[in-house]
Amino acid sequence: MATLATKRRGLCNLFLVFTACYAGGVTSAEQVYYDGLMAKAAGRIYNTDFVWENPEREFFEDELAHLAARTDALEAMICDALTVGHSVLGAELLVYYKLDGCIEPLRARLLEPGRFYGWEGTAGLPNNHLHDNQYPYHHRYFGALEALFDPRKLREGLALSQNETRELRMMAADPSSEHYEWAQWLLYRLNISVDQN
User: Fold this and answer.
1) Closest-CA residue to 92 (of 41, 164, 166)
2) Rounded CA gap, 161 and 131, in Å?
3) Is residue 116 a contact partner of residue 181, using CB atoms and an 8 Å limit?
4) Which of 3, 121, 157, 179 has its CA 20 to 30 A from that of 20?
5) Which tens digits make up the pLDDT trace of 6-36?
6) Contact call for residues 91 and 129 (beta carbons, < 8 A)
7) What pLDDT is recorded for position 195?
8) Contact of 45 with 87, CB cutoff 8 Å
9) What percent of the chain has pLDDT over 90?
10) In whole angstroms, how far apart are CA 72 and each of 12, 17, 78, 101, 185?
11) What digits encode the pLDDT tens for the residues 77-104?
């Protein structure tokens, strides 16, 4: 559920978008359409739920085509949303339009310690805690970064610092940590051993 601060930031961004649109003092049917489309995009981008599907399922084909002409505003909105909270659809839109201006907030969301979801779909399977669907936010961010960087260059692109790697390993080696499974999963996905030796 979106926090009050997130909602306020989203409303402020909508206000800025609309102000820019109406600065000319003339509103047309086309402008009204674009305003509505940007409002729809903002509503989904600032929504912090993880249930959103890919852009093709959340927008009509003509809407995606029109958004393609406004990727600067879209990217700025996504960067802001990722800075103040989760934005799964925002991450998906970055990949859809091949936008690489939000790498830092996307990276920060991926590295923000998460928790094991406990989804029953993989219960009983070997290494249940290493399945992507147990981390509904983080695995979407991971997939987005993987797509933006190229899977073969993901580790290089993320450029984990020694401190970041050490902290991940400490959590992954401590069963009492609430981030124990998440840290093991992320190290596994990045092909980094839990043991620093």
Assistant:
1) 41
2) 25
3) yes
4) 3
5) 444 554 455 444 444 444 444 688 888 999 9
6) no
7) 82
8) yes
9) 61
10) 17, 12, 10, 9, 33
11) 999 999 999 999 999 999 999 999 999 9
Cβ atoms of 71 and 45 closer than 8 Å:
no
Higher-pLDDT residue of 150, 69: 69
Tokens linked to 33: 């359409």
User: At 175, which amino acid appears?
Assistant: P
The CA-atom distances, in angstroms, between 79 and each of 13, 23, 74, 113, 148 are 11, 24, 9, 19, 15
Q: Is the pLDDT of residue 56 over 80?
A: yes
One-letter amino acid for residue 56 of the chain: E
pLDDT tens digit sequence for 112-134? 999 888 765 555 556 778 889 88
Residue recorded with tokens 């998460």:
114
Residues in the chain, how many?
197
Amino acid identity for residue 13 in this structure? N
CA distance 87 to 29: 30
CA 161 to chain centre: 21
Percent of the chain with pLDDT over 70: 82
Spatial distance between the Cα atoms of 16 and 35, rounded to a whole number of angstroms:
11
Q: Is residue 102 packed enough to be buried (19+ CB in 10 Å), middle (13-18) or exposed (0-12)? A: buried
CA separation for the pair 79, 94 (Å, rounded): 10
Residue 51 has which token pair?
């249930």
HSE-CB for 52 with a 13 A CA cutoff: 25
